[in-house]
Write a structure and sequence with these properties.
There is one protein chain. The protein is α+β, with helices and mostly antiparallel strands. The protein folds into two domains: 165 residues, ph1033 like domains (ph1033 like fold, Roll), CATH 3.10.590; 154 residues, no CATH class. It contains twelve helices and eleven strands. Strands 1, 2, 3, 4, 5, 6 and 7 form a seven-stranded mixed β-sheet that branches. A two-stranded antiparallel sheet has the order 8-9. The chain has a two-stranded antiparallel ribbon with strand order 10-11. A hairpin with a 5-residue loop joins strand 10 and strand 11. It is elongated.
Length: 325
């Protein structure tokens, strides 16, 4: 379990009321932003302190890993409005009956602020450029002590997190269902083309045939029986245009377990075939699936036309922040 601080001055009502965090993936100028990138490393059971209007007003328990999701409609022009697709984490927020003003407690908090990615200035004011940041354990513990029993009870609940509270990325499911419905209603596409594109979401049909011209087995398990393999998109189906959705270079043949890990960003691959493992992937589960996160294997290099799609996967799907490496 880790502790996070989120600044929600403009979006407190929407995010706390809706039980989620949402951020763009990049700055307005296209550059990487650590405070958005950190979304990729939130895990179920993590504690989130919500800061708005000079107060820590709510505490949340993360109930999902990060996943791609369109900007919530209720944001409108509020907050970071320049990017349509960003990161979402589902969080169960509880508004505090006794919110605290960090500025009133800087004698305790200031010595514990981290040198990098601090949520506050030494004087106690919030930092405008910070959205989400990781808190050192000592700082988080001091905040919990200042809030008191409300915070201690929620932290205890976070520590007892179990699989029943892990949310199934509902925003992602709804987004893809809406995209499928849009395709089914698109009469500008011939019926056979619509069917091929929709089947591609499930890794079947024409897309799988195209992938099989390039890949001949699961990269992780070496299973080569076609009935046990799915064609998994590197650039996700939801992010791709119809041509990319059917492009065999945009796919890998994977067994169902490996497909799940790749699709949700728990694993990815370097261009040379080195396996990349997300720090939020459950190590015990990976080992039961035959993956040793301590000794990542090499699955063999990829063809040149596959590389841009793999780069997209590393940059936009893999749950790993380069700022926490």
């Amino acid at each position: 379990m880790r502790y996070w601080w989120v600044n929600q001055n403009q979006t407190y009502r929407q995010e706390v009321g809706g039980n989620y965090l949402w951020s763009p993936k990049r700055r307005k100028d296209g550059g990487r932003n650590a405070f958005y990138d950190f979304m990729r490393e939130v895990a179920p059971g993590d504690i989130v302190f919500s800061f708005a209007g000079t107060l820590i007003k709510a505490i949340g328990i993360a109930s999902s890993h990060a996943y791609e999701c369109p900007k919530p409609e209720e944001f409108g022009q509020t907050g970071a409005y320049w990017e349509h697709i960003g990161w979402r984490v589902d969080v169960r927020f509880v508004e505090l009956k006794g919110p605290i003003r960090p500025k009133d407690h800087m004698g305790v908090l200031a010595p514990l602020l981290p040198a990098r990615y601090s949520p506050l200035r030494q004087e106690g004011e919030g930092l405008q450029g910070v959205y989400l940041t990781l808190l050192p354990g000592a700082l988080a513990g001091a905040i919990v002590d200042l809030i008191g029993r409300e915070a201690r009870d929620l932290v205890r609940e976070g520590r007892s997190a179990d699989s029943e509270r892990i949310a199934p990325a509902l925003g992602l499911v709804q987004w893809e269902e809406m995209e499928i419905a849009r395709l089914n209603d698109d009469r500008s596409l011939p019926e056979t083309d619509r069917e091929a594109v929709v089947l591609a979401r499930r890794g079947q049909g024409l897309f799988k045939q195209n992938v099989m011209r390039i890949e001949n087995a699961c990269r992780l398990t070496r299973v080569d029986r076609v009935e046990h393999l799915r064609a998994s998109h590197c650039k996700p189906w939801r992010d791709s245009n119809n041509q990319e959705r059917l492009d065999g270079n945009n796919g890998l043949l994977l067994t169902p377990n490996a497909d799940h890990l790749f699709d949700r960003g728990f694993i990815s691959f370097e261009d040379n075939g080195k396996l990349l493992v997300s720090p939020v992937a459950d190590a015990e589960s990976l080992e039961r699936m035959g993956i040793d996160p301590r000794q990542p294997r090499n699955v063999g290099g990829f063809e040149e036309k596959q590389l841009p799609y793999l780069d997209y996967h590393r940059e936009n799907v893999l749950l790993r922040s380069k700022f926490l490496a």
